[in-house]
Amino acid sequence: MSTTAVSLSMPAVPRRRRSPEEVAAAAPVTGPKRVLLAAPRGYCAGVDRAVIAVEKALEHYGAPVYVRKQIVHNVHVVSSLEERGAIFVEENEEVPEGALVVFSAHGVSPAVVQSAADRGLRTIDATCPLVTKVHKEAVRFSREDKHILLIGHEGHEEVEGTYGEAPESTTIVNNPAEARTVQVEDPDNLIWLSQTTLSVDEAMEIVEILRQRFPKLQDPPSDDICYATTNRQGAIKEIAPQADLVIVVGSANSSNSVRLVEVALEYGAKASHRVDFANEIDEAWFEGVASVGVTSGASVPEILVQDVLRLLADYGYADVAEVVTAQEDILFSLPKELRATMKAAGDPDYKGVKSSNLR
């Protein structure tokens, strides 16, 4: 009788975290330990608005509430909303006919809006108003027969949505290499737009390359990169030269979180790592480290940052100095479809966004 060998995977064994004493013995730290905590960090107004929109939809319409794509790019936020009854789908076709679907903060193309209408779906558009601004610019410039060079990462949901507003008039430019080779029919009739969550430096580098090739390239009427992206990068630029290590809290699919890691390294941090949760931090990162910079992407609730600070305190980094480089007081009203329901139900929050309880 023949037998077939079966390979069984071993159950996961929690890794034993080394003690502060063991880490110190591996590489002693010269100088006092401290944390430089970036401000601003975490939730921006657009993310707050989108998350609250799902929370309020669950409260007023009941579960399930369907959400096309991740409402924001953060695994903690998504899993927390799933526990409350949100169902995340990739496309409208996965939503039962007549059900309620929320469009994510990253925006959608007109084709997605039409497909929802074709299926009789009720919709709540939680697109960040700053992304909506870029969509309107794309429509306007297309109507003016301009060709749009859209600076952004092809495949990112925001870029797909903006491109979908005027596909015949838009060319996506992913990086400096593409900026050097992109071909256009009319180099005298160009304007550029950008994904809102890019690195400011990256976008400007691409614009300068394009301008050298196409001197008549026009600028959009206002900066497309959102205030929150700019402010978070500004804070980490201030911290990075002073940091032996920078920890960025944020998810792998969060463009602005990934950019923060890159900006930290570009501006002088000796090491920089991204984590979703404090338990992902490797204590080996602390070897020989006196100064730790901490920040978080624009879709990250503050509770996750506080978890990181508690872990750092356990390893002797209890001295926390907040580095404030900008003040933010921007609030966005909730989607109009939701405000009408909330007002009719006597919910006072319909007048404006109040911070999500996921923070």
Automatic annotation (TrEMBL):
(2E)-4-hydroxy-3-methylbut-2-enyl diphosphate binds at H73, H106, H156, T196, S254, S255, N256, S299. Keywords: 4Fe-4S, Iron, Iron-sulfur, Isoprene biosynthesis, Metal-binding, Oxidoreductase. Gene3D superfamilies: 3.40.50.11270, 4-hydroxy-3-methylbut-2-enyl diphosphate reductase, catalytic domain (3.40.1010.20). Pathway: Isoprenoid biosynthesis; dimethylallyl diphosphate biosynthesis; dimethylallyl diphosphate from (2E)-4-hydroxy-3-methylbutenyl diphosphate: step 1/1; Isoprenoid biosynthesis; isopentenyl diphosphate biosynthesis via DXP pathway; isopentenyl diphosphate from 1-deoxy-D-xylulose 5-phosphate: step 6/6. Binds 1 [4Fe-4S] cluster per subunit. Its EC number is 1.17.7.4. [4Fe-4S] cluster binds at C44, C128, C226. Isopentenyl diphosphate binds at H73, H106, H156, S254, S255, N256, S299. It catalyses: isopentenyl diphosphate + 2 oxidized [2Fe-2S]-[ferredoxin] + H2O = (2E)-4-hydroxy-3-methylbut-2-enyl diphosphate + 2 reduced [2Fe-2S]-[ferredoxin] + 2 H(+); dimethylallyl diphosphate + 2 oxidized [2Fe-2S]-[ferredoxin] + H2O = (2E)-4-hydroxy-3-methylbut-2-enyl diphosphate + 2 reduced [2Fe-2S]-[ferredoxin] + 2 H(+). The keyword tRNA processing does not apply. Pfam families: LYTB. Its cofactor is [4Fe-4S] cluster. GO terms for molecular function: 4-hydroxy-3-methylbut-2-enyl diphosphate reductase activity. CDD domains: lytB_ispH. The active site is at E158 (proton donor). Dimethylallyl diphosphate binds at H73, H106, H156, S254, S255, N256, S299. Residues 1-25 are annotated as: Disordered. Belongs to the IspH family. Catalyzes the conversion of 1-hydroxy-2-methyl-2-(E)-butenyl 4-diphosphate (HMBPP) into a mixture of isopentenyl diphosphate (IPP) and dimethylallyl diphosphate (DMAPP). Acts in the terminal step of the DOXP/MEP pathway for isoprenoid precursor biosynthesis. PANTHER family: 4-HYDROXY-3-METHYLBUT-2-ENYL DIPHOSPHATE REDUCTASE. This is 4-hydroxy-3-methylbut-2-enyl diphosphate reductase. The lineage of its organism: Bacteria, Bacillati, Actinomycetota, Actinomycetes, Micrococcales.
